[in-house]
Amino acid sequence: MEQDKRKAMIDDLFDALAAGGAVTLNEIASGPHSFEAVLAKMYHASPDTKKAMKELSAQARAVLFRHHQGGAVAEG
Questions:
Q1: Can you give the pTM of this predicted structure?
Q2: Rounded to the nearest 5°, which phi and psi values hold at 59?
Q3: Is the CB of residue 27 less than 8 Å from the CB of residue 21?
Q4: CB neighbours of residue 40 within 10 Å
Q5: Taking Cα atoms as reference points, which of 43, 76, 55, 38 lies closest to residue 1?
Q6: CB of 56 within 8 A of CB of 42?
Q7: Are 42 and 50 in contact (CB under 8 A)?
Q8: What are phi and psi of 6, to 5 degrees?
Q9: Which of 10-14, 25-29, 48-52, 64-68 has the lowest mean pLDDT?
């Protein structure tokens, strides 16, 4: 991902987190209102940000699934 697109994605992500009043991941998950606000803000993110977040989410799910199944989680 190009540097300017990466910066825009990070800015969009932190703007979305701020919209929900969250500072940590635990705060995002602490209640439905915070999570809903983050999702609503991400809905209006750039297409590049949405694509990157979708890919990141898929990777995270794969890691969690492997970990749950007792597989090793690769570092790096």
A1: 0.51
A2: -65, -40
A3: yes
A4: 12
A5: 55
A6: no
A7: yes
A8: -65, -45
A9: 25-29
Q: What is the pLDDT of residue 72?
A: 57
Mapping DSSP onto H, E and C, the string for the chain reads CCHHHHHHHHHHHHHHHHHCCCCCHHHHCCCHHHHHHHHHHHHCCCHHHHHHHHHHHHHHHHHHHHHHCCCCCCCC
Judged against a pLDDT cut of 60, whether residue 76 lies above it is answered with no
Residue type (1 letter), 19: A
Give the C-alpha distances (Å, rounded to integers) separating 64 from 17, 21, 26.
22, 26, 17
